């Protein structure tokens, strides 16, 4: 694998991730409008989403049930996961190129990203 091929693969990965995330968020937005278009919204009172929407398993369950807010949330998680996948692809690409320095640096960045996402509340 050479640098140009790695850049092409990473570019395609980023494009696909953003497109998929946008499609899922769009589908959730359409469902939201279709199911709740007649509801009157009271902007004087803020109502936070339920606790189930604050955990990864809760968001996945909600999206699997085709809940509009669950689909929007899963789309946003896909959008956040796209650059993480890019770094993972860079680790693999640099390892295939046998570039130890960039492999280690990319691996450190990947560990930091994953650890920060797992600790996020």
H/I helix tally: 4
Using only CA atoms, what is the Rg?
Answer: 19 Å
The end-to-end span amounts to 38 Å
DSSP E strands, number: 0
* Assembly classification: single chain
What would you say this structure looks like, in words?
The protein has helices spanning 3-36, 56-64, 68-96, 100-119. It is mainly α and 121 residues long. The N and C termini lie far apart (38 Å). It has one domain (3-119). Helix 2 (56-64) packs across helix 3. The protein contains four helices and no strands.
List the topology elements.
Blueprint (H helix, E strand, L loop, with lengths): L2 H34 L19 H9 L3 H29 L3 H20 L2
Helix pairs in contact: 1-3, 2-3, 3-4
Q: What's this model, at a glance?
A:
With 121 residues, the protein is mostly helical. It is built from 4 helices and no strands.
Q: Notable features of this structure?
A:
single chain; 121 residues; mainly alpha; 4 helices; 0% strand
